[in-house]
Each structure stands twice: as structure tokens, then as C-alpha cells.
Amino acid sequence: VQLVESGGGLVQAGDSLRLSCAASGLTFSFSRYVMGWFRQAPGKERESVAAISGGGTTNYVDSVKGRFTISRDNAKNTGFLQMNSLKSEDTAVYYCAVRGPLKGTFDSWGRGTQVTVSS
Predict the structure, then answer these.
(1) What is the pLDDT of residue 31?
(2) Furthest C-alpha separation in the chain
(3) DSSP string covering 4-71
(4) Dist CA 2 CA 6 (whole Å)
(5) pLDDT tens-digit profile of 41-79?
(6) 33: nearest Cα among 112, 96, 113, 114
(7) I need a labelling partner for 9 at 20 to 30 A (CA). Which of 20, 25, 41, 112 fits?
């Protein structure tokens, strides 16, 4: 499985960004994978930001609830993370990952895209 993120960049606090994650080389239909977005800020551990099941059930870390929206287009093997009202503390490298059927962990990862929010 190959995952490629795009859409990162340098923005000001309060701005919006939309990240995309294109998946290829899938063994199963994309709809059978759980997709997640993670981030890692300098000097900090990687944290889970949001996840979405194949059927569209979502969950978010508390710090992004109401500001970020995770979605997916199963027909295009693509996932998205819409980020609104960005804050400086959202600055991090953002990674997408997928967890296949019967897998207990996210085992395929993209290389990440940098999001920098200036205050």
C-alpha cells in the first residue's frame, strides 16, 4: 500500500487547509480500510488526530473537535482532512495511515506533509 499526502503549507492562524491522502496498491477495496490522520510536532510524540471507518464513522482528538473534519471518497481511494481555524499549536508534520481488514494497527503510512501555522 502506498499513501501520498498533499495540501500542507504555511498559513496564518485562523486560516484553513485541506489535506489529501491518495492510496494505491491496495489489497482490498479502499472502503474496507480504516483511514487515520496523525501528526507529529517537533520534540513531541506522534498523536492521532482523526480517523474514519469505511462506512464513515469518525472520531477526533479533543483538541481538533469542531475545527477539523475527516472525510473520504472511496471511489477515488482518497481521504481528506479539512482543517479550519488553524492555531499555532497545529503546526506539525501530518501523516495519513490506513489499517486493513483484520489488522489491529495502522500498518501503512505516508511520508507526511508539513503544516506550519504562524501566529
Answers:
(1) 96
(2) 42
(3) EEE--EEEETT--EEEEEEEES-SS-GGGSEEEEEEE-TTS--EEEEEE-TT--EEE-GGGTTTEEEE
(4) 13
(5) 999 999 999 999 999 999 999 999 999 999 999 999 999
(6) 96
(7) 25
